[in-house]
Every structure is written in structure tokens, then in C-alpha cells.
Amino acid sequence: xxxxxxxxxxxxxxxxxxxxxxxxxxxxxxxxxxxxxxxxxxxxxxxxxxxxxxxxxxxxxxxxxxxxxxxxxxxxxxxxxxxxxxxxxxxxxxxxxxxxxxxxxxxxxxxxxxxxxxxxxxxxxxxxxxxxxxxxxxxxxxxxxxxxxxxxxxxxxxxxxxxxxxxxxxxxxxxxxxxxxxxxxxxxxxxxxxxxxxxxxxxxxxxxxxxxxxxxxxxxxxxxxxxxxxxxxx
Length: 234
Hints:
Layout: E1 5-14, E2 17-27, E3 32-36, H1 43-50, E4 58-63, E5 66-67, H2 73-78, E6 81-84, H3 96-102, H4 114-120, H5 122-126, H6 137-149, E7 155-159, H7 167-182, E8 186-190, H8 194-200, E9 203-208, E10 211-217, H9 218-222, H10 225-232
Helix pairs in contact: 3-6
């Protein structure tokens, strides 16, 4: 029985248009992996499948030995998967604190609660009474991460972790993710900042037109700049 995430032969489509072709990858406990590729290559579609937001047409998704494919999204979340979605998607008319409480899930082994999230992101404590719509982009991303942590996940998935953020705020987010990794939290990270991902992740999976075209460690990716130019360059 696997103790981590195992995706095997994953296939998915939007109507008649197939979007994923036999995608396979794993995330072991405490491991950080990335899904890399240009826009429209299947990264976000893969994440939608993980969380039951897009039907799986073939293959399987297992986490800790239990099948996830075919389950509704709320049951998948109860299995220990936490999502920081692309675009943040905070509740604009709820306060910071209400956003965090709305997703809180007791139990879990990580012990995330309001005080721990505020300690992790002090700026959220300062803004605790502000509405989601009153936050900057960086503050919204901190809130989105904090909201996911409030579910006490054992696997955190971040879709476009630092997209559109100012350089200083991006570094704050990367620092936070490095701290989570040091605590042993498993993560899947989607982002375009290859330099930061090379220092954060254990392994990388490169997608091209819905297919897995390369996988390797940070050391292997760093030693093969042609992969970056061919599949990740603009």
C-alpha cells in the first residue's frame, strides 16, 4: 500500500477534446514535486482531476492506498489534500479571519489553527478584519495558502504559487514554502520560476500537450538547460 500519491495513466478531456494522455507521477511522503510546462499543456487540468473538479476518463489516482478518482471534491479534501488554486479565489466579502475559519478542519496531524497561521503569516494577523477584496495580491496569496493549511493537509497543492506577485512578495512565499518543506509537508507546486523551484523541489515533471515528456531531479534539470529551453521557454 502506497503511503503517498500515485497517479497512473491519467486521461481527461473537455468534451470531445482530450486534454491528458496517460499522465503518471508519484509524490512520496515529505517530498516536493513540480508540474512544469507552458500554459495550456495540462498542469492545471491534472490538478483539477486530483481534486475531482474534472472527471477522470482513464487511469487511476490513489492517495495513501485509497482511490480518489470518482470521488466528489469534498470527500477528496477529507483525505488530506489541500489546494491553493490559481487566481487565489479568496472570498471577497468575508474578512481574513472568516476566510480562514470557513475552511478549517479539525484533526490532522499538522496542528494548523488560526494562531499558527497568523504566526506563519504575521501580515494576515494585521489584516484579520479586512475583507478579502481589500487585500493586495500578495496578501491574498498568503490568505489562500493559510486557508489551505487550515484544512490540515498532508499534501498541499499550489497552482501558480507566485504568479503576478511583486519580487519581494514572491520571495516571502518561497520562504514560506521552504519552511513547510522543512516540516515534512508533501507538496505539488506549479509555477514558472524555475530558479526557485530548483532549490525547493525534489523532482520535476514536464508536460507538453497533455503528455509527460520528461522527469528528473533538480540536479538533472539544472544540468540539462536544453529541457528548459525546449519545453519551458517562452
